[in-house]
Amino acid sequence: LETALVDWLLRRIPLDPRLEVPPGDDAAVLRPPAGRRTVVAVDMLADGIDFVLGTGCTPQQVGHKALAVNLSDLAAMAARPEAAVVAVTLPTSDGEAIGRGLWEGLAPLAAAHGMTIVGGDTNAWDGPLVVSVTVLGSVAPGRAWRRDAARPGDLVVATGRFGGSIAGRHLAVVPRVAEALALADRHPVHAAIDVSDGLSLDLARMMAASGTAAVLDADAIPIHPDAVALAAADAAAGRPTATPLDRALGDGEDFELLLVMPPDAARAAVAASGVAPLAVPLTVIGEVVAGQGIFLRDPAGVVRPLEPRGWVHRLGGLR
Amino acid sequence: LETALVDWLLRRIPLDPRLEVPPGDDAAVLRPPAGRRTVVAVDMLADGIDFVLGTGCTPQQVGHKALAVNLSDLAAMAARPEAAVVAVTLPTSDGEAIGRGLWEGLAPLAAAHGMTIVGGDTNAWDGPLVVSVTVLGSVAPGRAWRRDAARPGDLVVATGRFGGSIAGRHLAVVPRVAEALALADRHPVHAAIDVSDGLSLDLARMMAASGTAAVLDADAIPIHPDAVALAAADAAAGRPTATPLDRALGDGEDFELLLVMPPDAARAAVAASGVAPLAVPLTVIGEVVAGQGIFLRDPAGVVRPLEPRGWVHRLGGLR
Fold this sequence. Notes:
The structure is a homodimer.
Chain A: H1 4-12, E1 28-30, E2 37-46, H2 59-76, E3 80-91, H3 95-112, E4 116-125, E5 130-139, E6 155-159, H4 177-186, E7 191-194, H5 199-210, E8 213-217, H6 225-236, H7 244-250, E9 257-261, H8 263-272, E10 282-289, E11 293-297, E12 303-305
Helix pairs in contact in A: 1-3, 2-3, 2-4, 6-7
């Protein structure tokens, strides 16, 4: 009755003590962890927008990315991943192979984060691949990181490095879940956001939500080697180019975290970073001040307003 | 920074005591109801497959259907609706108006079921509208209706009437949530499924999951007037036609419930139906027997195997 693909998928869903009813029913029934809040995020990815199948991009990579960007949202809330559901509309031609590839990309990432894929919806059409993943996480009451609680005097701390993800890194997203959970256990974090659209754009969103401003130190922004390489390649080809710093501030799809912390906590966290469980380097990139907007302090100490930039969808900047 | 649409949507999300963090953060944070399981379902709908925008079908109707088909899944589990997230990829042209229309269709249905829309993801492309809704519900431990627990001797009870939904009813889905919750409070239900793809196909799935067979009474199948009208129109136009009964058994998108109940409970529920909270008529349409497959008993009492039929997607019958 149902196709090989659905049967193939159902056979691969591991038994999980969180599931009260076996996979394959009208809906999944989960035992939620006692005394915790439920955290929910969703992201839809489409061929030609968030990835381009066939240009060196495999269904496995799409499956990985579709789950990873959602895990990045859970990380930005300091939430522990619990479960996910996956809805797809597959191209009719080659749909089964693409569906299996998506699973092969999703499943190891889910397993690595101790989460279970509890259900989904499979469809097909004569159109591009569309994947929507919804993740469920959990967090202790009152402990979710919000984006609206930054305070003047706090420092802005970033995980990892920024810019040039379009060179390929955007398909190999490493969500900062373990780092977020370790930080949440050890240090006060007043506000957090993940950088999906661009460092400057997502920072501006967090500042707007908090009713505060931020001053970034140009010298302190951790620039990814990909941003340097892309700028150099543009220059060598005589193309108009952005500086590596511009790329770090506006390229987007870095899926790093921006954390707003009291100064002592920020310095302690940075000092402890670089070894597990805070394996990723942490960097203080700026400070929160009273006011609105975001600013950049150049190496000479001159502070100028910084226009938020980022990768946004074509519907006038929707995300 | 973000467009008018996202701002417009965020302004419309009502405050809800189940939300610990205001809408608009990286993820939603929900207080789950104490002592209950979490029930999760997802359905993705695409223009040209599940609806055809512009042919008398409005974005409001799509929004309604996208949530309603998920509510039907919760009803099939006897779960109480709690929350939903909505991911869309909008056509670039007219995307804002379509996005608002989707909300206008979704929001009243969510409110009517006491659920809150807690988040989403908005994207745009030069392609057809795609909508994915994920619903969260709750149910007491061990009380979810499964599809794998029908027993020989049980009766098969159906809500409502079947066939001909393509005439327009498939856009105005009335999920049987209130009826499911009322039944679950009052009567034992051994197994349940909602009819998304077709009465015979979904019944066959439930029987296969339970390791049982079912015999339907041809005379007892409640046939929707739409099925009669479509058959008559086909005949009048000289087109090949299905009988109204064939349509009731195989058309799909009825979003009625098939309930497997002990005989006494089934008869009591049928007797109590037709008035709120069991407003929809219930009908005994057959019985569960040992064996496998599904069968049809004709008015003369002759029992023949029934080939499961239904509306399935083009990828070889994926759903």
